[in-house]
Amino acid sequence: MTDAAELRRRTQELLAAYPPGETDRLDFLRARFDAGLAWVHYPEGLGGLGAPRSLQAVVDAELAAAGAPDNDPRRIGIGLGMAAPTILGFGTEEQKRRFLRPLWVGEEVWCQLFSEPGAGSDLAALGTRAVRAEGEGGEWVVNGQKVWTSSAHLARWAILIARTDPDVPKHRGITYFICDMTDPGVEVRPLRQITGEAEFNEVFLTDVRIPDAHRLGDVGDGWRVAQTTLMNERVSIGGMRIPREGGMIGPVAKTWRERPELRTHDTHQRLLRLWVEAEVARLSGERLRQQLALGQPGHEGAGMKLGFARLNQEISGLEVELLGEKGLLYEDWTMRRPELVDFTGRDAGYRYLRSKGNSIEGGTSEVLLNIVAERVLGLPSEPRTDKDVAWKDLAR
């Protein structure tokens, strides 16, 4: 069993062989992956050592103290938080070795082709079709449209779910694929948001050919595979590791301390309540990560993501109100296609506008409330009249 002392020794060996100040950033990250220090809980040869997940903090602390570069996790969050655990759980050995190293190093950016304009919050009702091509190539031909796709304009690869059998109920006729975003037939169009930027996109798939070797899991088993992606997504959004007063509560607390002339009794009471709730959410996230050390995430991540969205919206609203007239200003409406979302590095107006999307992305709050009610609290399920109806017979 690899323990903390062994991980420190391995980390110091890495630093001695590849001094951060003298080594190219990508070369250092590749060496770290090959040494099993990327994500220590992954298997040997895939960036890990089969060690407990909780020991990753030991490696991270040693590397941070030495000034070693990281893999810019915010830029490649979809790959790290969603694609990687799904590939690890359902991919072939060839797929794991092909995709995980460049994913973790950041050489290849990933996006997520799940949501569709015709399915709304009912992801299982998706209509993008994948049909086996005739011949011996083992290819699938995909046609459809996806929407709200973060980083599609930067991505080399996408995790994609498509309907392969319309004659069975909607949850059973879905298959999960890895899609090359540079292939012919993949068209990415920007979606300009309320912030003026276009970090989201809509993606049109026209006769896109995907080899069967890029299928994850069995044909028709895509919904089960997608649950791994979705549960990890909610944890990565709502359960991020942050320090006390990290995240959205930090800027408003800083303004409160530095600008006493802005304070009122009402805003004081609201700030106290939100500060406590933010700290409870932070500690709940720590507890969730401890549970993760024992296995895959459960549906508790849905509750974390729910709280994350509500808190961000309430905190940003308080910040705008606290700032008065200045809170109504917004720095720049220039149309841009950013590489990441930076909540704390922008102004209050950006935080207020961008946080509105938190209750939609990563699963709408309404859907997540159902998940918490049924799968965490064990309450009765809502009546579902379409449960046993073939997808092709559903009203649309």
SSE blueprint and pairings:
Elements: H1 4-17, H2 25-34, H3 56-65, H4 77-90, H5 93-105, E1 110-113, E2 129-132, E3 139-146, E4 157-163, E5 174-180, E6 186-191, E7 200-211, E8 215-216, H6 222-238, H7 249-258, H8 265-292, H9 300-322, H10 348-354, H11 365-376
Parallel strand pairs: 1-4
Antiparallel strand pairs: 2-3, 3-7, 4-5, 5-8, 6-7
Descriptive notes:
The chain is α+β, with helices and mostly antiparallel strands and 396 residues long. The chain has helices at residues 4-17, 25-34, 56-65, 77-90, 93-105, 222-238, 249-258, 265-292, 300-322, 348-354, 365-376; strands at residues 110-113, 129-132, 139-146, 157-163, 174-180, 186-191, 200-211, 215-216. Helix 8 (265-292) runs antiparallel to helix 9 (300-322) and helix 9 packs antiparallel against helix 10. The protein is globular, with a radius of gyration of 22 Å. It starts with a helix and ends in a 20-residue tail after the last helix.
Structural class: alpha+beta
Oligomer: single chain
What letter string, H or E per element, gives the SSE order? Answer: HHHHHEEEEEEEEHHHHHH
Number of separate strands: 8
Number of discrete helical segments:
11
> How confident is the prediction overall: mean pLDDT?
91
Beta content comes to 5-15%
Cα-based radius of gyration, to the nearest Å: 22 Å
**What portion of residues is helical?**
25-40%
- Give unreliable regions as ranges: none
Measured distance between first and last alpha carbons = 54 Å
Q: Main sheet, how many strands, which sense, barrel?
A: 4 strands, mixed
Going across the major beta sheet, what is the strand order?
1-4-5-8
Which shape, going by the Cα principal axes?
globular
